[in-house]
User: Fold these one by one.
Assistant:
Number 1:
Amino acid sequence: MDTMDSRIVNVVEQAVWDLMRRVLEEKHGICTCPKCQADIAALALNNLKPRYVTSAKGEALARADSLDQTTYIAVLVALAKAIEQVAPNPRHEVSPGQ
Ligand SMILES: [Zn+2]
């Protein structure tokens, strides 16, 4: 038994970070600083059911591409809603020129 090297991973959280970067790449004029990205991810995750898998030695972390269709779409919808909420109200000063 090699329990020391096993850990649990929320594949939905992995997918949120993975997909968020892709979605934000296509959006323009919204803040993509680490603070806003964390806010978007947290909001989206609060609206999603976690799905945990065990990951031996951290290998083979699930990527968005390996999610089932229903979860994939749920993540996209939650992300879109979170971006709508966070983008107009960044919780920090907007830097000059933005
Ligand atoms: Zn920001």
Note: The pocket of zinc ion is lined by residues 31, 33, 35-36, 90, 92 (CB under 6 Å).
Number 2:
Amino acid sequence: MKITIHRGINQIGGCITEISNSETRILIDLGQNLPDGEGVVKDDFASREAIEKITQGIDAIFYTHYHGDHLGLFHYVPDNVQQYLGNVAKRVALCKHRQLSYIKGREELSAEEIAKLKKMGELSPGQSINIGDITITPYFVSHSAYDAYMFLIEAEGKKILHTGDFRGHGYLSKGLLPTIEKFILPQGKVDFLITEGTMLSRRGEKVMTENELQKEAGRIMTRYKNVFVMCSSTDMERLATFYAANKHLKRPLVCDRFQKSILEIFTESAGIRSQLFHFDKVYDFNPTNGKLVEWMSDKGFCMFVRATDKFKDYYQSLATRLDPNETVLIYSMWKEYVNYDGKHTVQRYLDFVSMFPNVEKLHTSGHASAECLANVCNLVNPTLGIIPIHSEQSDNYRKLNINDTLKGKIITTSQDIEGVEITTF
Ligand SMILES: [Zn+2]
Ligand SMILES: [Zn+2]
């Protein structure tokens, strides 16, 4: 058996892992590199030729979740390679690509993306899929993308657990350790753990739970009447945080039609199981809707926004009616995107944020803290190796609070272990 980390050993995003034996070859994720501050993506794999080459002989591709750094290159994949994504994740990705299709000059590309997405196989938690002699079983994880999975991959009597991106401090994280304990480990020992390490290079960041964040959001929203929230439009748990905080204040929750469609998908899926994800009263904003604008200026409101010209116009159409002292933008994304001197600065975000009279930063990571990573490593206790990916400093894995035997099993370079050929690029 072979494990090939095409990308991810020393970078966040652009994840591509291959697992193969003499009969079958599968990929876990086919992600695009994250853009730099100017929004430019530098990615040698981002072409039809490169993807045709890397997917040659590949039997299937399994995506852990819908973030671009895991799913981003799917549209280049030839039709003879079956691709799989969570069933709700697929709906979200389709909704997003339909939205992108309205951008001028993108019609053809969007049509191709939508056609490829529609053909994708759908994953459900706990439901195994056999590809040749490899079995893949998805298990639900909490992440800043809903319907995200870790995969248990079985081949030639060996077991690999690939975590994808996950965290231990979300509303939906309670099942993380019990899932490993009650469903994965009873099937037999895991030989290799391939796991994310995003937070290892961001260890100074305080990890607040999504619950704590909701309380803090409530405090800010009580101080300000007019609240704009800039967060990921597909991060269900974060959207629920602000939705819940706003609900207590009985103010209208407004957003655009795209965001409303995404919230409807979440209501119809996760909302069936938990009231927290039941986004039932959401208003589609339109500056010409006098009645809604009147209601918003009277009662105050919470509006989900994105850093686009449309939302700039929306804000400006409302601004004259709003008291600047009572108006705030809650910035709920990674702080580095709006750090003036950082290497991850996104100018578009900075420009957007600077329009508002008051800005409050309130965020918690979609990724596992060092403590959570250690808990997962200790519990899984793999027999042969731990391969850290999705990390700028994979070597930092050795600083985790895990025992020396496990530390000795951390793999960041190419090597053969008990007949398993591991290649890292
Ligand atoms: Zn990622
Ligand atoms: Zn992600």
Note: The longest helix spans residues 87-100.
